[in-house]
Amino acid sequence: MLIGDVARRSGVSARMLRYYESLGLVRPTGRSGSGYREYADEDIRRVFHIECLRSLGLSLRDVGRALDDPGFAPGELVDDLVRRTRERIAAETELLTRLRRIGASEPAGWEDVLQVVVLLRALGSKSPAARQRAALSAAEDVPVPVDALVEAVLSESDPSVAGALRWALAQSGPDGLALLAEGLGSPEAPVRKRAVRSLAEFPGDEATALLREALTSPDVVVRRYAALELGARGVTDAVPTLVDMIVAGANDADAADALSTLASDPASADRIAHALVERLDRNASGSPARGRLTQALADIPGDRASAALAGLSHDEDPAVALTATYVLGLRDA
Prior knowledge:
Helices cover 72% and strands 1% of the residues. The protein is mainly alpha-helical.
């Protein structure tokens, strides 16, 4: 069979077959009387084997080893191919994401494209100062796609940069809320914490609704950040979590301030006083939590809180009794 016949049957060009021959991958069985290359069926099968191995990403050198080296072990090479393929896919995916983000910024010209590219690269810089400058630019000058900002916010560990990014994201409008809500369900605790802190920067009913949902999160840190922000927004659903924070001594001063803010409404004041007294009764005498609960109760206005403090002024816990007595004196003054 001549080279043209092999090319038609195999789909490999005559030029490529000659190149394979120059590398020693395929050798014609012989020559015709006119000097033309002649190939046997075994030669064609080898051509097919070469093409199959090339389709897996093997180099021609590796193809030759695989076909001719009796001791060739494919497992290690396949593992290396898997690694390189994953790296290539990751690089291509990153490029695709970058292109989509540039397209989403609706650039009017190449200057706009370059500006967005520079900013996206700065957001991924190893320098916290560069990332912070990029965050400020995103908020003031350059329209950065919101998913890029959310990604930066959820991965940022530097407190100063994180604050700038949260502010920039909030300035970009409500489009990032859905992505932050997804972040609340992340398997990584730091990401969940960053997501709820970012949600707290957004005004409006949609953000408040997401923070309400965060109160049911299995992550206690998420619940606590949500409760503090909801307390500042006047949402009484946060009361149980805020009281839990006081008992646990976790940001208890902030939690007490949030309860005091909520207690500006008389109806809420009675509910908060009841919740605090109920937890006081559940904690044993001498517990540090009882002292924190009493101090929080001192900032709650209304008759119910005053009556509870009057009872606590005779408490068997000296610290609780002293605090309650002192507060009552201030209330009566």
